[in-house]
Amino acid sequence: MTTTSHVLAVELATRRLLRVAWLLGVAGSLVALFTTVQQQAGVTAIALAITWTIGWSAGAARPEFMIPLLRRWPWTVVLVAGASLGTILASGGFDSLLKAEANWLAWAAPVVLGTSASLSVAAILSAGLLSAFLLDGMSLEQIVSGPDRYTAVTDILNPLIVVLVALALSGVFRFVLSNASELLMRARQDGPASGPDMAALLAGRPLLALPAGELKPSASTLWERLTAAQRDIVEQLAEGLTPKQIALARHTQVETVWEQLAAARQRTGAQTNEHLVVVAWPLRS
Questions:
Q1: Distance CA 60, CA 21 (A)
Q2: Whose CB has fewer CB within 10 Å in the chain, the N or C terminal residue?
Q3: CA atoms within 13 A on the CB side of 47
Q4: pLDDT tens-digit profile of 92-143?
């Protein structure tokens, strides 16, 4: 498998995992919203819960826009930690029902960032929680040895625990998804299959007793159907650029890039931009 194809497989797996992480945030925010309403926590708490739910929903809907933000993690995480601090102070302090809203970022960070950066994300989120408790009037002594010490310490350490679990899970799932994409690309590269035996298909051992299936256009054939501009955009998309970044690089409007991508999908029969890259990007040796 080529380096470009491998990078593409990892990038697609990253987007899928990031969407899952953001959906966890949506689910958690919905639970928090339901709890604030049920316990009549006040208009401010309910409004904040709705805001967090909308934010996580936007991330789940367009994970490709979230990846560049997470890669600029120091600024993004400080902003989220600050928003969490303000949310906690505005919705009850230590007793706030929204203390864990920012922690869902700890699930998303390991999908895009490395181990050290993810641990730094956890440290920033934990510092935000600690700051919120201190600003709410608690002392370090109360946090460490007071009657609510178990809850306080657990809340503060929760981002670190989440990051460690997420690092393990993202590593496993990225490996599985990347290798699954590799197997599918190899199967496509081997040509038509003549038997139902998947092992024989992947190994390139056709069973000649059965008729071969219908041959689909190869990536090279689909590539020839695209215009020069569409090929350039697909290449940039395969390199991990977003449509907005492609528009900036090409000194054009992002709407023009979306139109080119739509035309390219129509020419190749692709359903999504990710599918477009998979079916049209010619495998390079």
A1: 8
A2: C
A3: 6
A4: 888 888 888 888 788 788 877 778 888 888 888 888 888 888 888 888 888 8
Number of Cβ atoms within 10 Å of the Cβ of 141: 9
CB–CB of 260/229 below 8 Å?
A: yes
Six-digit token string for 236: 């940039």
Q: What is the CATH number of the domain that holds 235?
A: 1.10.10.10
Report how far Cα 31 is from the mean position of its chain's Cα atoms. 21
Whether pTM > 0.85 for this model: the answer is: no
- 13 in Cβ contact with 177 (< 8 Å): yes
Please check whether residues 70 and 147 belong to one and the same domain: yes
Look at residues 146, 177, 208 and tell me which one is the last residue of a structural domain.
Answer: 177
| Cβ pair 274, 265 in contact under 8 A | no
Distance CA 235, CA 263 (A): 15
| 132 and 85 Cβ atoms separated by less than 8 Å | yes
Measured in degrees and rounded to the nearest 5, phi and psi for residue 179 equal -70, -30
Nearest alpha carbon to residue 97 among 28, 25, 27, 32? 32
Can you give the residue range of the structural domain that contains 229? Answer: 216-285
Q: Are residues 160 and 223 in the same domain?
A: no
